[in-house]
Write a structure and sequence with these properties.
Number of domains: 1
Strand content: 15-25%
Structural class: alpha+beta
Radius of gyration: 14 Å
Order of helices and strands: EEEHEH
Largest sheet: 4 strands, mixed
Number of strands: 4
Strand order of the largest sheet: 3-2-1-4
Oligomer: single chain
Number of helices: 2
Length: 107
């Protein structure tokens, strides 16, 4: 069973060379989700690993990842999302994960 379902959506490269991303995080048990803006899905995976994975154990990927392109270079073509600190585990990340049904282990 997967711990989370991650769906990355990105735009085409704009005239300045920028590509924008969002990641929808879904709890497969409750089917609740939220979408976060990010520069890469790797950042989201890093934060989820820091929250859910015991560092003393071997790394494994408990996420099921899918992705899609919007077909547009416009930022407005991405789904609505919230902004969270995308580089570090934070209280805001834990709060959003609790809202969709996760129990957060103590650090």
């Amino acid at each position: 069973m997967y711990k989370a379902l991650l769906h990355e959506t990105w735009t085409k490269r704009d005239i300045s060379g920028n590509v924008y991303h969002t990641v929808k995080i879904t709890n497969p048990k409750t089917r609740n989700s939220f979408t976060v803006s990010t520069c890469s899905i790797g950042n989201v995976e890093h934060i989820l690993n820091s929250i859910f994975t015991d560092v003393s154990k071997t790394y494994y990927c408990p996420w099921y990842i899918t992705d899609s392109c919007t077909g547009s270079s416009r930022l407005s073509s991405l789904p609505d999302s919230i902004y969270l600190d995308e580089c570090h585990r934070s209280i805001q990340w834990e709060k959003e994960l609790r809202k969709i049904g996760y129990r957060i282990p103590k650090q």
